[in-house]
Amino acid sequence: MALLSKKDANLILDPLADNNPITIQVLGICSALAITAELKASVVMALSVLFVLGAGNVVISLLRNVIPSKIRIIVQLVVVATLVIIVDQVLKAFAYELSKTLSVFVGLIITNCIIMGRFEAFALGNGPWKSFLDGIGNALGYGIILVIIGFFRELLGSGTLFGFPVLGDPVTKTGLYALGYENNGFMIIPPAALIVVGIVIWVQRSRNRTLIEEA
Amino acid sequence: MGLKEKLHTFRIKNQDKKWFPVFSGFHTFLFTPNETTHNGTHIKGADDLKRTMNTVVMSLVPCLIFGMFNTGYQHYLALGEIEPVANGFFSAGFWAMDNFLLGLWKVLPLVIVSYGVGLAIEFLFCVIKKHEIEEGYLVTGMLVPLIVPVDLPLWMLAVAVAFGVVIGKEVFGGTGMNILNPALTIRAFLFFAYPTWMSGDKVWVHGAVDTAGTADAISGETVLGFLAQGRTAEMGYSLSDMFFGFIPGSIGETSTLLILLGGLFLVFSKIASWRIMLSAVLGALAMGLIFNSVVDAGWIPEYSKFYTLMSFEYWQHLLVGGLAFGIVFMATDPVTGSQTNQGKWIYGFLIGFLSVMIRVFNPGYPEGVFLAILLMNVFAPTIDHYVVRGNIKKRLKRLKTATIYPKASDEVDALKTETA
């Protein structure tokens, strides 16, 4: 027997591609633009959201029958705020430099539409196991796009990956730089992230034409 | 059977081939196809997109040739091998063969790369989309080499052109559908991606980058660069130098005289809108006057970093930098500019106004023209929208005060009640 039934597997696989939170639902764009100048920050952000969304979905799902529907948004906010504070404190304790780069954007996970969206749309109506899978799937879908953007922006903008120089040294002119190559300063600024997201969306929709909305 | 007929039969035979758009592009570039229409419009104007584009390219050629001479002139002048010219526009020291050959050697590769990369992408997209080749790139390809510094590495230009054509134009649906002027998108990309090659005092004269830091170092500060740093005393350019274009700058933008001629040609051939040009000039003058009067009123102390640029004689803003070039050749782009006549006045005025404002307030971007035009490109549809709305409102108001005769439907109703 497979580890997951086909239906459960789809909960994880769907948001990775055909129902991706960033490229298809166009949620969580702000953080995708703000912190993807470096691959490291993208990965940490993706992991933070993975934790918050996975755990949050389970908690909300467990509480779903006791939350009065009139105040459910407040309860959801309390849950997500608690989890975000945990993430923030852990980052500050173990990766202080990185937490400074991410600055407010860890705190702003609270307002990330993907999280509230999954709570509302899925966790309130499904059991904890399914909600967990759904949370993981959406967080991975978010993370994969972040990593793609971070990869291209760091590679083209700074010539590094995870901080390691992969294209040579721009100061002493080795590797590609010896041939006259230069880093593209445009990739470091947030508008470039918007364009990279646009290109990802373009590539995805031209590979799978059913995703194109009717005009 | 002549060549022309042979091409036509070839055209009909291969209509369904994948490479047909490429052939068709070259064919219609040289000949008018002998296809006749079967319905709808039978008489068409001869000034189709290709002719329009070619007219603009023709008006740019003087700037290009001048840019080649100026490249050589500025280089040899900076090296101290020739004396500055002082005998008016037709000085022999400027129009020397040596100057031209060096310029040709430096500028021609930029033109070839710009056209090569841009047209290749354009052709590729047409083959994929099974469209006819769109000629939009003919002008962009000529504009791009004219608005970049002469020592720009060719690969950077190629990257920027690819970016500008794909992201600036093709994703919106190709020629005629773009929101931003592609040539300026390319320049903006270069400016933000490789700022060290697009600004400073080293890039405007050929050879200045290579010799930087050595004993033979030469500098080629632009007029705006001098002004932004408050070093007016060192600047040895006379007004006629600025007007004729014997100053360092991007390749084709220096000669206000030739830009003016190109602009007149475009106005008389009715390709470009004189409303935009005129209102942009007025806008620049207005902003310049405001700055001048602020200085005259004594509100700006002399040690302020804005003082030199603010006190720069208001009409001279039109002579330096790319303002004139931008106004004549970029702001008037019929696709990205405003379409309504009233809108053109507002659009042009704000371009001139903002250009001078950016120029003065941000010494980091001594050339604000391309930013101002791009910004107004974005606003052009909004301006048009409100102009059209305003017109509708005006006419509705007129309707209220007008005498309205009984409508035909009223008579029908009256007839119905009668017969009932």
From TrEMBL, chain A:
GO annotations of cellular component type: endomembrane system; plasma membrane
Top-rank taxon, per record: Bacteria
Any Pfam family hit: Rnf-Nqr
Keywords attached to this entry: Cell inner membrane, Cell membrane, Ion transport, Membrane, NAD, Sodium, Sodium transport, Translocase, Transmembrane, Transmembrane helix, Transport, Ubiquinone
Cell compartments where the protein resides: Cell membrane; Endomembrane system
Segments passing through the bilayer: 43-63, 75-95, 101-119, 140-164, 184-203
Predominant location category: membrane
Entry GO MF terms: oxidoreductase activity, acting on NAD(P)H, quinone or similar compound as acceptor
Family, as annotated: Belongs to the NqrDE/RnfAE family.
Oligomeric form and interacting partners: Composed of six subunits; NqrA, NqrB, NqrC, NqrD, NqrE and NqrF.
Protein name from the UniProt record: Na(+)-translocating NADH-quinone reductase subunit D
Lineage: Bacteria, Pseudomonadati, Bacteroidota, Flavobacteriia, Flavobacteriales
Gene coding for it: nqrD
TrEMBL record, chain B:
Enzyme class: translocase
Example GO biological process: transmembrane transport
Keyword Membrane belongs to the record: yes
Location in the cell: Cell membrane
Substrates-to-products reaction catalysed: a ubiquinone + n Na(+)(in) + NADH + H(+) = a ubiquinol + n Na(+)(out) + NAD(+)
Gene Ontology molecular-function annotations: FMN binding; oxidoreductase activity, acting on NAD(P)H, quinone or similar compound as acceptor
Membrane topology value: Multi-pass membrane protein
Location of FMN phosphoryl threonine modifications: T222
This protein's UniProt keywords: Cell inner membrane, Cell membrane, Flavoprotein, FMN, Ion transport, Membrane, NAD, Phosphoprotein, Sodium, Sodium transport, Translocase, Transmembrane, Transmembrane helix, Transport, Ubiquinone
Cofactor or coenzyme needed: FMN
Highest taxon, organism lineage: Bacteria
Pfam families linked to this entry: NQR2_RnfD_RnfE
InterPro entries, per the entry: NqrB (IPR010966), NqrB/RnfD (IPR004338)
Family: Belongs to the NqrB/RnfD family.
Biological role stated in the UniProt entry: NQR complex catalyzes the reduction of ubiquinone-1 to ubiquinol by two successive reactions, coupled with the transport of Na(+) ions from the cytoplasm to the periplasm. NqrA to NqrE are probably involved in the second step, the conversion of ubisemiquinone to ubiquinol.
Protein name: Na(+)-translocating NADH-quinone reductase subunit B
Organism listed in the record: Flagellimonas olearia
Source species taxonomy: Bacteria, Pseudomonadati, Bacteroidota, Flavobacteriia, Flavobacteriales
Designated gene of the protein: nqrB
